[in-house]
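Hey all, quick one. A colleague (J.T.) asked me to put the zinc ion job into the tracker so the inputs and the structure tokens live in one place instead of scattered across chat threads. No bug as far as I know, just bookkeeping. Sequence used:
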Amino acid sequence: MVSYEDIEMLKAYAPQGDGWVLSLYLDVDQSKASNRKRGFETVAQNLLRDVERGVDERAREEFERSRARLLRFIRSYEPKKKSLVVFCDARHDFWWDRDLPVPMPSVARFENVPYLRPLIEALDEYERYGVVLMDKEKARLFTVYMGEIQEHEAVFDDVPRRTVTTSMDRLWSQKNLQRHHDAHVHWHAVHVAERLRELVERYRFDRLIVGGTVEAVGELMRVLPKRLSERVAGTISLPVTAPASEVLAEAIRVEEQVERQAELQMVDALLTAAAKGDRAVVGPMATLEALNAGRVWRLVYAGHCTLTGSACTQCGALFWEPQRATCWYCGGTLEAVPGFLNRVLERVLALGGSVEEVRGPAAERLEAAGGIGAFLRY
Ligand SMILES: [Zn+2]
């Protein structure tokens, strides 16, 4: 989990004197064939070799120290999530690493400060979910963020029995009891809605997942204010006593459905806009041309996209494989780029754009159009 404090600390980190930080983002997603059998190790070595080329002579020794430490770490590293992020300044014994449940393009940098942009963007983009699990007397509240769950203080409201069990209860007619019971269910739902309102103020979650007994959830939905009911993204079927790990697993399932749906909408919007010529392109050729012109605002690519290509040795322009042998901007010679897609993603980020990986049906739809496309700035 990356906290707000982590980011503040990293932002403030500047090595004393003329120090350097080696930053590495590594796609370690084990659902990708290329990452199995520790393929990510090779990617890391290649990225660091690319970085080495640009290292200033005076910083070479520092680079070597940080690189050695980083590679040592990666050799014994076991992937847990989708991406690994490391910032290392071996000379000042500075080290920060996290596993993130979000896909991130593999990038390495050696600069005077940690390269934070991809991390900050991923955090901004990731949605926070609220989860409420309730029956008629108890409600448990959770927030889920980046694959982790946090439980908050529960809400309790005692409900009187619906049936007559003691002599005291005979004072109540069955009808009164029912009315009394319904009123309790109602007030309990109102309390829960109040707590949810506080929770959304504090944690700013974008979406809400509800679960529990039909009666309790139904009443909650009736009393939930519009700005909360609009955020309901799905329901889960779990007893109110379910362990947090089960709540998390169910919340992630809903989250993935929501994401897949959003990705489908994004790809459809991309294909429609590209067909109309409305500030969007699809296919490797058109996308790279737009990228070379600095027009890419948001790049969209299929998770299994295997784009190959080359870069101009003179001006750095990027070309898709079947394109010609010399740069059509400056006539320079082209050189094949290993891990070409990563180079493309890095270029987009460097130009202030954003990147979106899509999976599932959205990826299939995009693959039919070349596996890559972009929304353009103009
Ligand atoms: Zn060129």
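Adding what we noticed when we looked at it: Residues 312, 314-315, 317, 327, 329-330, 332 surround zinc ion (CB under 6 Å). The first helix runs from residue 4 to 12.
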